[in-house]
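Retro notes (design track)

What went well: tokenization of the new backbones is finally stable.
What didn't: we kept losing track of which sequence belonged to which structure.
Fix going forward: every design gets posted as structure first, then sequence, in one message. First example under the new rule, 339 residues:
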């Protein structure tokens, strides 16, 4: 879309962003991202960082909206939704083949992003970090619950990350050394971006099977010093998933491996053995891409699809308490606007 063609959509006083994007194969939309993400995602993919600030700023790779007085999504929805939709389109989000999204539910723009008409559920995957604690603030609980419900309502595939999982997540890479927590999550996003065509194709197939919510498990920097075999590593991963998952509840399993060519046959054999452990699998895939490594390290990321989304009772309780007093915050209102 040419910049000159958008003046009619905006008011006369609104600034026209000097951003014009070609059709992208993959756009990474990141709400309040850590610096490590930008360093790890390949430069060939377009990264759009979304946040709140003291003043609006829109430029190549950056979308900052002015922070309002409140912290919950209804106020931001009233003030910004139309313009936010438009700005996402300016950045080429609507026309991208695929969209990899990472949201921070503490930021109300996360809800607007998942509700945006620029997000096509068929070509999108979101990563949602949920803080399930009794002392979570009311605004964050409401935004978190709303992000999950908008994702479910629009059938946007989403990967759930819990704070507990982040605390335990760690690994070793030859490029960045020891990584943990959000830096390790950035590395998972890197793996998904490197194999995005295969991953998005598999997740799109799952949608047709009624599967749209996922847990994730990751082994970063695996070697024979950590596990005696790749098969043993895969068996351990279900116990280290980002949400509590029993093998009987698994509907789909997609394994992405970055490994030296010398390990490809072992990974394929381990995968064939591993999927036999899940009786109710509707879909399963293996994607391997070559990894240059001097130490013989390999990475495995598993997307674990579940037919029934996990429940987060603490944030649901706070959400329901609020909407009893403020019906405007009902997420059903937002979903109704999208129909």
């Amino acid at each position: 879309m040419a910049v000159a063609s958008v003046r009619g959509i905006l008011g006369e006083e609104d600034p026209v962003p000097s951003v014009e994007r070609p059709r992208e194969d993959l756009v990474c939309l990141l709400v309040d991202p850590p610096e490590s993400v930008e360093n790890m995602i390949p430069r060939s993919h377009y990264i759009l960082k979304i946040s709140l600030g003291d003043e609006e700023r829109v430029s190549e790779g950056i979308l900052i909206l002015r922070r309002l007085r409140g912290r919950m999504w209804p106020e931001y929805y009233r003030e910004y939704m139309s313009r936010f939709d438009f700005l996402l389109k300016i950045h080429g989000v609507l026309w991208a083949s695929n969209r990899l999204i990472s949201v921070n539910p503490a930021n109300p723009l996360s809800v607007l992003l998942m509700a945006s008409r620029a997000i096509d559920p068929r070509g999108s995957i979101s990563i949602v970090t949920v803080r399930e604690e009794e002392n979570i603030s009311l605004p964050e609980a409401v935004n978190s619950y709303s992000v999950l419900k908008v994702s479910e309502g629009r059938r946007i595939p989403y990967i759930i990350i819990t704070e507990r999982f982040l605390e335990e997540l760690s690994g070793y890479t030859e490029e960045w050394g020891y990584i943990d927590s959000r830096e390790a999550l950035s590395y998972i996003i890197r793996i998904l971006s490197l194999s995005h065509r295969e991953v998005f194709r598999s997740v799109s197939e799952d949608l047709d099977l009624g599967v749209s919510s996922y847990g994730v498990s990751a082994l970063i920097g695996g070697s024979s010093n950590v596990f005696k075999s790749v098969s043993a590593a895969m068996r351990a991963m279900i116990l280290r998933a980002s949400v509590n998952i029993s093998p009987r509840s698994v509907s789909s399993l997609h394994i992405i491996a970055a490994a030296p060519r010398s390990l490809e046959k072992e990974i394929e054999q381990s995968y064939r053995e591993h999927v036999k452990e899940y009786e109710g699998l509707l879909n399963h895939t293996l994607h391997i891409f070559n990894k240059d490594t001097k130490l013989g390290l390999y990475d495995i990321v598993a997307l674990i699809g579940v037919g029934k989304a996990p429940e987060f009772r603490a944030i649901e309780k706070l959400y329901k308490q609020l909407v009893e007093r403020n019906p405007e915050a009902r997420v059903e209102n937002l979903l109704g606007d999208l129909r």
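Added context from the reviewer: The radius of gyration is 20 Å.
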